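I hope you will forgive my troubling you with a question about protein structure. The matter concerns a single protein, recorded as an amino acid sequence and a row of backbone structure tokens. Please examine both parts with care and let me know of anything in them that strikes you as inconsistent. Thank you for your consideration; the sequence and its tokens are set out here:
***
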Amino acid sequence: MLTVTTRCYRSPDEIDLAVFAEVPRTAQWWWAHPTVVAQDERGTLIGYASFSLSLPPTVTLAELQPRAIGWGQGMAVHPEFRGRGIGQQLIEARVRVLHELGVHFFIGHAAPANTAMAALFARQGLTPAATLPQADGTDLIYYMGAL
């Protein structure tokens, strides 16, 4: 039976996460984006979920939209562990951290073919808001909603 725990990212995690992270990340990236990781009972990292925070950029906008927004910056589960609820656990851990920071609104994104991520977003109550073309010619669907 797989036992999974989640915790905050630590510096040595970068090497283990690089094995299955979809996009290679630099050490500065991991430190710039708060990250929760999932590990198995042996301590092997099997997933991560990162985010950033955005505050209203001006006082005027803060009056209209006075809340911080959590932005999904990356999430992956090691291919050998997919389909076992680890993504859901990572999202729940990320939401706990966001709530501790006073953030209750989230925007995340997924490729149109990533139906697993779309399902996770739907279970979280997020809805598709826009599909935007990316510089590499692909599209991303942006999901948003209250946490």
